Amino acid sequence: MKVLLLGATGNVGSRLIPALLAHGHTVVVLIRSEAKLRNLVDSSAIDKCTIVTGDATNAPAIGAVLMENRCDALINSAGQAAPFPWQAPRMQEIETAVITAAVEASKKLGYPIRAWFLGGMAVLDFPQYPGTKLATYFPVFAEHVLTYEKLIAQPSEHLEWSLFAPSQMTPASKEITLLSTPRGHSLVAANDTLPNYMTTFMSGLPFGIGLASDIMCNMLRYNTNLEDCADFMAADLAKSESEHVGHRVGVIVDNKKGKRE
Question: Is residue 204's pLDDT more than 80?
Fold first, then answer.
């Protein structure tokens, strides 16, 4: 696929460049500062991308890049959500611009844009209570719910979206360089909920205390590394059809595969 990447100087975005290239994608990067990107990612990877200077809040500019390069897909890893519910949303201007650009570009290109957006685990449902989001009882980074609400309102004939919803992600390596082959990943995924969720003896406590306690007890189990997450999304875009279209996607490390370094 030809993939437009936004947020390439972020922790996830910078690792998506080598992951996408390793999976055979053609990569177009929309970035405010190429110099900043080259300080993060080895030139061996950047030089294989098309670099376009622009702003992720500018819907017409994003749409123009999608159309001029005839992109099939995009990944939006730009922006950072407000961590606490009393804070004003920080990334909705970006999300609105990217969604609007993708839908309008799709109408003119004549095919749907496949898109991954970056969220967080709070947007997922409790496995035992479908339709009840973790954010209801543990509203950390709950801004991602606003992104989800925007996505489900979009016409599927124009935007084939997925919302990646991990817990904390940490780097496996500080070096970000070109890969000769995909690194692979050790993640198991579930649509709209958390895979392999474990309820605790506290889950039955009243007034939502039990559910909030369950989340806190499970949270560390869902920590992943950035490289695994980047490979997961890049590998999914290489599929002819994805089971994750139209879904929030939770992930956990598969202990049978073991954690990758």
Answer: no
Continuous segment of H or E residues that includes residue 45: helix 43-46
pTM: 0.93
| Number of Cβ atoms within 10 Å of the Cβ of 191 | 16
- Cβ pair 141, 81 in contact under 8 A: yes
Q: Within its chain, how far is the Cα of 28 from the centroid?
A: 17
d(CA 147, CA 123): 9
Order of strands, sheet of 2-6, starting from the edge strand that comes earlier in the sequence: 50-53, 26-31, 2-6, 73-76, 113-118, 159-164, 247-253, 187-191
Residue 52 to residue 115: CA distance in whole angstroms: 19
CB 155 within 8 A of CB 25: no
Give the total residue count for the chain. Answer: 261
- In degrees and rounded to multiples of 5, residue 227 shows phi and psi of -65, -40
Whether 182 has a pLDDT exceeding 60, the answer reads: yes
